[in-house]
Amino acid sequence: MQINNVLTKIVSDNLMHAKWLNTLSYMENAGAKKISASEHKESVTLLILKHAAEEHRHAYYLKKQIAKIDDSMCKTYSNDELLAPNHTKFYLNALDVEVCRYLKKHFNLSGYELKFAAYLFVTYAIEVRADELYPIYQSALDEAKSKVNVKSIILEEEGHLAEMLHQLHHFSTDWEQHAKNVIEIEQNMFQNWIESLAKDIN
């Protein structure tokens, strides 16, 4: 099932929609924690702090949007309050592991250098995905005349992508080819996640 069809179906059902917002919130929160985990003990840049703070804020904002549907729904991140919970909880960790393997092979990195490189490439792939996913979701919300909206997140994710591109330019002269390969890794995982979502909502 195409992502457009999946989101149209999700938005049409209050319980599924609340779980979807909760699922997005979970993933934004997981991303924020991943960013914090990649930090150097001392050399923490303003950009990394900003990025982690914004991802945490997205998690909060999405969770808060659930009240526009029904404020009694989805109080936790327990499996029964998420869509495709196993794939959702596996997604970011699996991407991180695969990208770390790729970077070890091509750059021979370890320790903090590997963590930071993984942060750059994983975050880049996720921001590319967010730049595609959130506008499709917003279109589904507009069509359904939903009170929920994610326009503020769309603007911030566009800014994040520009920031990641700037950092990747400084990381490697042939960053584009490596970024393309990382995007392919993420695309396979995203497709599996969408298939799992489609099964969950049928």
Topology at a glance:
Blueprint: H1 3-11, H2 14-37, H3 46-65, H4 85-107, H5 111-143, H6 151-171, H7 175-201
Description of the molecule:
- The chain is mostly helical.
- 78% of the residues lie in helices and 0% in strands.
- The protein has helices at residues 3-11, 14-37, 46-65, 85-107, 111-143, 151-171, 175-201.
Radius of gyration: 17 Å
Number of domains: 1
Structural class: mainly alpha
Helicity range:
over 70%
List SSEs in N-to-C order. Answer: HHHHHHH
What's the number of extended β-strand segments? 0
How far apart, in Å, are the first and last alpha carbons? 11 Å
Kindly report the average pLDDT value: 93
Strand content: under 5%
Please provide a brief summary of the model.
By secondary structure, this protein is mainly α.
Keyphrases for this structure?
202 residues; mainly alpha; 7 helices; 78% helix; globular
